## 1
Amino acid sequence: MERAEVVARHPYQWRRAWKALRVLIRDPKQTDQVFEVLEALSGGSFEHQFQHFAADPGGRRLLAEKPALLAMLSDRDALRTLPDGSLGRAYLAFMESGSLTADGLVEADAVAAERNPNPPAHQRDADREFYGDRRRDIHDLWHVLTGYGMDEAGEAANLAFTFGQIPSLGLGLIVIAGAIIGPKTPRLGWERYLFRAWRRGCRASDLTTAPYEELLALPLEDVRLRLGIEAPSIAHPEGIIVGNRDDESTDVASPPSPPVGYQTAAA
């Protein structure tokens, strides 16, 4: 069945985006503000990206089957049965190390939606809702695949990587803000680090169409190779930057060793 491309554009809500960005800069833990910025500056990017997803064979298969990825990521007992070194086990370790839940971003998305007088583009029909929800739900999987931690430096790098995969004005604004307020390093080291994260996202395969349900049981390094994601030691030979602005210092972790591919800031 052919799918006609109808790109729906929405006026940019700069005041709403700026207000949310200021809150996010003050408190990066307010994840709902990320969704506020993204929705305020979505324009026609969501629809354009959805059309690209729907035109891809992998995307078409996902739309036809609509697998319940969130349910699989929430089933920790099932994840524990997966082989050591697998993507699923690494994801479980990542989530448990930060006391995170798979549906945490669902709640943040819902909070932002309550403040939005106009429903976002992904709430218009079942296919777009599935695509929008899946993009949200794979965020923490991308943390594991990239090796970027859940600290502020890791979140900024993961968003820069995501910007390389799913470019949008709102995401670009957040990444630029992260570059400006991040650690002051010699020779623009922090900015170059984010650039490498963005370039890494650009070079990878289209990760939105990946069948993660089938990849969870595979070795993490094998999944990276399959999806064209550079290993952390290659993308960042000087190491993964770990830290928060409240920390006395920001460290550079050694390139992570397989199979566990992430570093987190000390609590």
## 2
Amino acid sequence: MKKYHGHWLKRARLERELTQSDIAGDRFTKQYVSMVEKGYVKLSNNAIKYIRRKLKLPKDYFDTGLYNDEKERLDELVIKIDSLSDSYNYDEAEKKVAEALKISKDAKNDDYINLFSVKLARVLIETKKLNKSETLLNKTNKYFIEEKDFKNLSYSYYWTGVLYMLKEKYTDSLFMFNKVIEQNSKLKRKKDLSVNARATAKIAQIYRETENYKGAKEKYEEAAKLAEKSKDDYIIAMTYWGYSRLLQREGEYEKAISYCNKAAPIYKRLKYERQYLKINNNLANLYYYLNDYDNTINLANKTISLLEDKGYEEQLAYALLFRSKAKKEKNLLEEAESDIKRSIVLLKKIEDKRELAVAYMTKGLIYEKKKEYDNTILSFNKAIDIFKELEEPAFINSAYSEIIRFYKDIGKSDKALEYTEYWINYAKRIKF
């Protein structure tokens, strides 16, 4: 890290309300002190020792620019910000980052400035401010490369990889996550297995999203072993949670439930409420796939009761959706309709269009059971319009199939044929 002797000397002098002559004493000239503060010359080792003793500065002050209490606070903030970010408390995390950056910039400590810039980039990524985060990460990557700080470079590369994932630049993202593991291997001391576990889990997630399920399974198993070796409970839970989602994609619902049940108590013990509620919701959905509607309703009830006063609108919307689907299957149609209407309002508010379309399909199926056929087809068509907007062929095909089945069931073969033609015409225009 660059040594800012002039800035650090002036900072210490002004805080003690001393003049340059006071610092010079009978040891130096005032002009020498002035030249140091202006950056024209650097302090010699003897001058550093003399001034450090005279001003009662920490031993490493002219290496870091920090007082002991400032360094202690920054180290506390490193842990606090990570904890807040891991628990989705991004507003508070951003406030703590702002505090840390102020201390670091006042001290002109480039190491801490770049470290907390990465933490700010993470908050910006999690709150979907991707361009701002990319600008920060480009700077921090460059800084840590120049400093050969492989530990923090791994950390910066990791969030660059996450950024590329969100931009669906999967090739670039895979490159960055592999660089994380490569840079971490350069550490002379013990490697940070938790960073390797995170990167490996993200590689698995990319494979899952791109439907390379075999590769995803191998990487999740590798990530789980690394996480367990690292003894980092948060990473262990994150890996179990990711693996359960892969198993769900493959239709292995009971096995997915077992991994959810491994992750849930860890998040609960760590008091990461949002992740715990998220898994609870996913468990409700998994039980729905297994036709265990009572368990789905019980889990959704539990989540909803915890969420009503929390303001976690996303998870509340999903819990209401899952409960509505299960109540529809149990013919509790009025309750199902009430839940789905509430869910739709929230899904519109949080702008989750895919789940909004799923909710409209569910609403249509509820109206079908209630024999309100005009409302049924209206809801189905709303779902198809959203799926088309999102360019989701698999969901569109499923929706058209449901509409055709619906018209056949109520004896309107002409309408079933009409929608079959719509479906065929749509299929001709898209590329699978």
